[in-house]
């Protein structure tokens, strides 16, 4: 009889899951720990409208593994579609050998036999990428589906940015028009999460800590032509700097001294938490870079007023809007988008030539 138990997670598992996250830092030149205090399930409900989390327990050790395959509505080929999103695959370092991964994926396979999911893996996460390419027969096929760039815009330099008379915070009376504009423009990008603006400010956990006034609207000739929101997620989702590669550790003081001149982000002290605002729900008429640049100026100014050190945003690496954020001092994180399935024929009609949208606030 196996000494392992794999089962759906319950609310009482939060402490065990938080402990597992703390033990499984993301490796790379900058070592990151993704935390979910005070409750693991707060962030899970923001990533998926229908969370589905599985845990592996071992007697005497608690939770030693987990994966999430929740569902959310995203635009696929222009149509709202319920799609699974795979995330938070974690195995405690003490149990990463042997058959732990095999057992976890055995359960995963039972749940995903006739479905497919989207998953995003950081370029520096070599362990996950090597697992994807291992060819193990318990794993689904991971079909490459695009490249994403997350850009952390530095807000260290205070700039006198004049108010734009055509940009204003959204109001309740704007919701119907915002919804119509969003549904029309967001549908052009694959994997764009669907939004229901009437739910913002409600007790729906998918919209935790968002207010309608956190969205900013560009109006031209009375028409909404650009829309984006700011989201402060530090109350339920944190990123901790766990360490640096040896060379970067030694170069950090010299690099940080240069950032005072360049305006780039400094490398934080080990064990510190990043404080940034998430730029999300970016929709622009005709995906026009000029309109986005105009809106971004106001969003940067607002994030600075909220004492954020950086503004985090993500785009398809092919997206013309990415060129606008690259004009600002910052730091890039590359990631790869995959479709994971045991039946590749299920995604034959998925148009991957379309621009995609990685809503990093929900990853």
> What oligomeric state do the depicted chains represent?
single chain
Unreliable residue runs:
none
The helix/strand order is EHEHEEEHEHEEHEEEEHEHEHE
Estimate the global geometry from the Cα principal axes: globular
Q: What's the average pLDDT?
A: 93
CATH class of the largest domain: Alpha Beta
State the distance separating the first and last CA atoms: 36 Å
| Rg (C-alpha, Å) | 21 Å
For CATH, the homologous superfamily of the largest domain is named as Gcn5-related N-acetyltransferase (GNAT)
Number of helical stretches of at least 4 residues: 8
- Portion in strands: 25-35%
Helical residue percent band: 10-25%
Tally of distinct domains:
2
CATH architecture annotation of the largest domain: 3-Layer(aba) Sandwich
CATH topology of the largest domain: Aminopeptidase
Work out the number of β strands: 15
In terms of structural class, how would the helical and strand content be classed? alpha+beta
What composes the largest sheet?
13 strands, mixed
Your description of this structure?
Strands 1, 3, 4, 5, 6, 7, 8, 9, 10, 11, 13, 14 and 15 form a 13-stranded mixed sheet that branches. The protein contains eight helices and 15 strands. A hairpin with a 2-residue loop joins strand 4 (62-76) and strand 5. The protein is α+β, with helices and mostly antiparallel strands and 363 residues long. The chain has two domains: 5-147 and 237-249, Aminopeptidase (3-Layer(aba) Sandwich); 153-234 and 267-340, Gcn5-related N-acetyltransferase (GNAT) (Aminopeptidase, 3-Layer(aba) Sandwich). The model has no long low-confidence stretch (mean pLDDT 93). The protein has helices at 14-23, 40-47, 100-112, 126-132, 175-186, 246-262, 289-305, 320-325; strands at 5-8, 30-35, 53-58, 62-76, 79-91, 116-122, 141-154, 167-169, 192-193, 215-220, 223-231, 238-244, 276-284, 310-316, 330-341. It comes from Thalassolituus pacificus. This is N-acetyltransferase domain-containing protein.
């Amino acid at each position: 009889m196996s000494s392992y138990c794999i089962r759906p997670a319950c609310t009482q598992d939060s402490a065990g899951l938080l402990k597992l996250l703390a033990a499984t830092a993301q490796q790379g030149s900058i070592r990151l720990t993704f935390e979910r205090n005070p409750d693991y399930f707060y962030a899970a409900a923001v990533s998926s409208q229908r969370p589905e989390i599985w845990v592996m327990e071992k007697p005497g050790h608690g939770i030693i593994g987990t994966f999430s395959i929740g569902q959310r509505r995203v635009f696929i080929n222009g149509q709202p579609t319920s799609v699974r999103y795979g995330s938070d695959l974690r195995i405690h370092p003490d149990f990463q050998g042997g058959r732990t991964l095999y057992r976890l994926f055995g359960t995963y396979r039972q749940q995903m036999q006739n479905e497919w999911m989207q998953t995003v893996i950081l370029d520096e996460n070599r362990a996950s990428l090597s697992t994807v390419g291992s060819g193990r027969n318990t794993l689904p096929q991971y079909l490459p589906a695009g490249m994403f760039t997350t850009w952390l815009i530095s807000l260290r330099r205070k700039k006198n940015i004049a108010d734009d008379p055509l940009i204003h915070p959204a109001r309740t009376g704007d919701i119907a028009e915002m919804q119509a504009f969003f549904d029309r423009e967001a549908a052009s990008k694959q994997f764009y999460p669907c939004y229901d603006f009437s739910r913002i400010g409600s007790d729906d956990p998918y919209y935790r800590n968002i207010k309608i006034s956190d969205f900013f609207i560009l109006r031209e000739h009375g028409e909404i032509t650009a829309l984006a929101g700011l989201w402060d997620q530090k109350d339920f989702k944190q990123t901790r700097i766990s360490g640096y590669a040896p060379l970067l550790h030694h170069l950090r003081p010299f690099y940080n001294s240069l950032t005072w001149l360049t305006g780039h982000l400094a490398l934080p002290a080990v064990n510190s938490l990043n404080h940034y605002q998430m730029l999300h729900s970016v929709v622009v008429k005709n995906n026009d870079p000029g309109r986005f640049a105009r809106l971004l100026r106001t969003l940067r100014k607002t994030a600075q007023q909220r004492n954020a050190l950086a503004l985090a945003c993500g785009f398809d690496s092919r997206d013309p809007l990415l060129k606008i954020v690259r004009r600002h001092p910052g730091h890039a994180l590359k990631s790869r988008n995959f479709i994971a399935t045991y039946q590749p024929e299920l995604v034959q009609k998925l148009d991957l030539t379309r621009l995609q949208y990685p809503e990093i606030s929900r990853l």
